[in-house]
Amino acid sequence: MRRVFNSTKLKNSSSVNTLPTLFIIRNQSRVASSPLQIKNDKNNSLKIQKFPLKNNNINIRQINSDCFSDRHKGPCELEKQQMLRYLGFKDLDELTNTNVPESIRLREKLGKQIPEEGVDESKMLNELGEIASLNNPYKTFIGMGFYDCIVPSVIVKNMLQNAGWTSPYTPYQPEIAQGRLESLLNFQTMISDLTGLLFANASLLDESTACAEAIALAVRVTKKRTILYDTGLHPQNIGVMATRSEPMDINFQPLDINDGNVNNKFGDNIAAIILQYPNTEGLIYEDLDLLVQYAHKEKILVIMVCDLLSLTLLRSAGDLGADIAVGSAQRFGLPLGYGGPHAGFMSVANLALARQMPGRIVGVSRDQQGNIAYRLTLQTREQHIRRDKATSNICTAQALPANISAMYAIYHGPNRLVYIAKMIHKATSFLSQTLKANGIQVVHKCFFDTLKIPPLNKQLFDLKCEEKRINVRNYTDGYIGISLDETTKIGDICDILYLFDINICEKEIKNKLMETSTPLIGNSLHSRHSTFLTGHVFNSYHSETQIIRYMKRLENKDLSLVHSMIPLGSCTMKLNASCELIPISWPKLANIHPFVPTEQAKGYSKIFNDLERWLCELTGYDKFSLQPNSGANGEYAGMLAIRGYFHSKGESQRNICLIPVSAHGTNPATAHMANFKVVPVESDKHGNINFKDLSAKCERFSNELACAMITYPSTHGVFESQIKDVCNKIHEHGGQVYLDGANFNAQACLCRPGDYGSDISHFNLHKTFCIPHGGGGPGMGPIGVKSHLAPFLPGHPIIPQNGEKRYDGVVGGAPWGSASILPITWAYIRLMGISGSKTCLPNGYT
Fold first, then answer.
1. Using one digit for the tens of pLDDT, what is the confidence trace for 406-450?
2. For residue range 623-655, what is the model confidence (pLDDT) as tens digits?
3. At what angle do helices 544-555 and 399-437 cross, to 10 degrees?
């Protein structure tokens, strides 16, 4: 008791102070609970209210009454009752029973995979910390488009961990989004300046999907169907482009840029050539400007996949004459995160290409008073307006990661970015010179941060890598790849040289680095001379105080969950609990390269396995893929699975996709991307699926019917009573049911799509499972399938999926998508348990 009293601070102005601590007093079979009250008399002396205790055998214990589900729910009990009375229902059960058709309600008890009871925040963090400790990451020099970087603490604290930045909705309403729109415009300016091209978008999902979007753009613009791809592209980029090409009937052909006869491969039906700059072996191609000239002479577009940091030293894509540039902004302040989330980008050379560009574009306009204002522009390209004629199905992109990258550039400014790039290149040049001086060949002379080295005694080399806890890249031809980055230290260079039996102490390396002349790029034709990031915003906020004030100024212009609920969709109508977001910054989760051996990522494997089991139990599906890094990307992966299934059965003629006219725009846009023919299904007078029209179209297209895409509950928020009949009708005519899981938060713990007839769904973890939406991304859209579709889930060319490496069906650069935000969903489900989910998720009805 003394401890409780001593820790309680009493204010003179308060006559009564009630401690939140509850005590249980056991007196034989009777149990009573009461708050302990402390009263002040006029002299401010304490008077303690006594309990009438008669039994000397008393057990007093402090109860931890902190229940996460209670904190997670929006309405209190009184508010809930007021809403129910207004709607005419006596309780939540009556409301849900009235809305959810009896025929689809959950019959079996949940809890076989997910624990029945949730845990408190402290226990969840302890459990997740133990899982994260299973990760055993080595120092990584793999590269391949993913590089460790130093994330400024001021950006982590004031943006990544700030609900004012993480919780807003997509900026469709510019009046309440001026801060984010200005920041995204900074991102676009950064990309445009560094790539040397006029127009950029406000982010894409990652570098690999940006490559796929670029070749699709080239095909649309040129009306030609052959793409020549550089064999020096990163393998994951090739995989995602190959996946996109197959259903679109694009002739996707390899091209060796180093072939002296490359110009002879140019023909009439070539839409574009796409190349990596620098390439996957670190090589900076010679005479790229001449290659571009030859291509343009044949009316072929040139797409360059750029390393953003290298462009501070190298000639830009625009300087070389390229038409389109794509890549990833990961090196600009975004942790490796075992694959993401990272902001992809695209920039183009002219307005004609910009009008065909995918994704959102922020433009400058004026408000009613004539003041400068920002808004999304050229929206008639996008899925929510153009539907199946949209330039892409992309909806959620990577707004928050894009804003972090923009702030990284603003904080450092152009001079500091050049310095960082020079230090990386200088260290790589020193490493190359030292290897050569010791008789070890380095394959390429022209490089930025990556060296390719012939194999030595591979067995001994691998043993030394294990000794020093180092990961390097192993090329398929047996060569070794080493990529340096912003975090590389002198000790790391010492360890790398040790792998090659070169023993130099750190002091000697430091002295030699100081003696090393201007980096090689600075003395070559590859050196950049055009200016970049000259605007005021990139040259003004280089101290912590300045950048904090700038970020806060932008944050205060926006509406987020810090201010109020945002009733604009399930992307934001949720709590983004602080405890769920803490783990994404833990080094054991944040600093892991996506292509390390899986033995070094056992913690992530545990998280993935748990999530797959838990999601299967909640949805009624048999298998999940966590690769899709947005809802639209999940839709695409799902439609490819359906396509693959029918092709495997020899029924490739099945290409009709029935979609209600009320469906979200991503549905028809996705179906079109997967080369399905969209046939609309009419609505009845209540806005529901017109079953008569659906039946007629099933009969009409019975032999060609592939699937129906259905949002459930519907886009106007209704559980349509005939959903089982709809699913049965589709199956009756040989089709599959794709149920859009965007509104799954209304179904969770009440019914399961896999039980009432759906074959496949994607689920927006940034809706139902509490990943913050970040003002337009990141998101995650894993797909669940029934067992017959499981063989057609996404593969990956580097990390085996289901025991094999596959180029087919790859929809993202990383094997598990934006892996570092999956612990948020793991934390949410663990906190809630089945009982908490049953309590909280149905509250969405009220």
1. 999 999 999 999 999 999 999 999 999 999 999 999 999 999 999
2. 999 999 999 999 999 999 999 999 999 999 999
3. 150
Quote the CA–CA distance of 734 and 786 in Å, as a whole number: 15
pLDDT at 420: 97
Using CA atoms, how far apart are residues 136 and 291, in angstroms rounded to an integer?
A: 44
DSSP bridge partners of 480: 453, 474
Residues 445, 227: contact at Cβ < 8 Å? no
pLDDT value at position 516?
A: 64
Alpha-carbon distance 543 to 541, whole Å? 6
Strand duo 705-711 + 656-660: pairing: parallel
83 or 391, greater pLDDT? 83
Which residues have C-beta within 8 Å of that of residue 621, sequence separation ≥ 6?
A: 615, 753, 754, 760, 761, 784, 785, 786
Residue type, 829: I
Give yes or no for a contact between 793 and 636, defined as CB atoms under 8 angstroms apart.
Answer: no
pLDDT tens for residues 731-789? 999 999 999 988 888 888 899 999 999 999 999 988 888 888 888 889 899 999 999 99
Q: What is the pLDDT of residue 22?
A: 36
Q: 190: which 2 tokens? A: 């950064």
- Between the two ends of the chain, the Cα-to-Cα distance in Å is 42
Backbone phi and psi for residue 333, each to the nearest 5 degrees, phi listed first:
85, 15
CB 377 within 8 A of CB 754: no
Whole-angstrom Cα distance, residue 11 to residue 229? 73
Task: State how far the Cα of 153 lies from the Cα of 404, in Å rounded to an integer.
Answer: 11
CB within 8 A of 10, min separation 6: which ones? 17, 38, 40, 46
Band of residue 343 on the pLDDT scale cut at 50, 70, 90:
very high
pLDDT for res 126: 97
CA 557 to chain centre: 25
Distance in angstroms (rounded) separating the CA atoms of residues 568 and 168:
10
CA distance to 343, 381, 393, 810, per residue, from 385 (Å):
24, 7, 11, 27
Compute the radius of gyration of the chain from its Cα atoms. 29
| DSSP helix, strand, coil percent of the chain (3-state; round to 5) | 40, 15, 45
- Cα(171)–Cα(178) distance, integer angstroms: 8
**Which residues make Cβ contacts (< 8 Å) with residue 677, sequence separation at least 6?**
655, 656, 657
| CA 399/CA 560 separation, integer angstroms | 14
Q: In DSSP terms, which residues pair with 506 in a beta bridge?
A: none
Count of CB atoms within 10 A of residue 801's CB?
A: 19
Catalogue all structural domains in the chain, each as residue range(s) with its CATH number: 2-65 (no CATH), 177-359 (3.40.640.10), 620-819 (3.40.640.10)
Q: Which residues of 322-335 are buried (b: 16+ CB within 10 A; e: fewer)?
A: bbbbbbbbbbbbbb
* Cβ atoms of residues 167 and 576 within 8 Å: yes
d(CA 679, CA 661): 9
- Please name the residues in contact with 177: beta carbons below 8 A apart, sequence gap of 6 or more: 168, 171, 557, 558, 559, 775
Tokens representing 743 are: 């509104």
Instruction: List alpha helices for 649-762, DSSP H.
Output: 666-673, 691-700, 723-732
State pLDDT tens for residues 308-329. Answer: 999 999 999 999 999 999 999 9
CA distance 420 to 259: 33
3 state SS of 276? strand
Categorize the per-residue pLDDT at 572 as very low, low, confident or very high, splitting at 50, 70 and 90: low
CA distance linking residue 504 with residue 139, whole number of Å? 19
Distance from C-alpha of 227 to C-alpha of 195, rounded to nearest angstrom: 22
- Residue 95 — φ and ψ, nearest 5°? -65, -50
Count of residues in the chain? 846
Please give the model's pTM, rounded to 2 decimal places: 0.90
Place of tokens 């304490």: 46
Please confirm whether the linkage preceding 713 is cis (ω < 30° from 0): yes
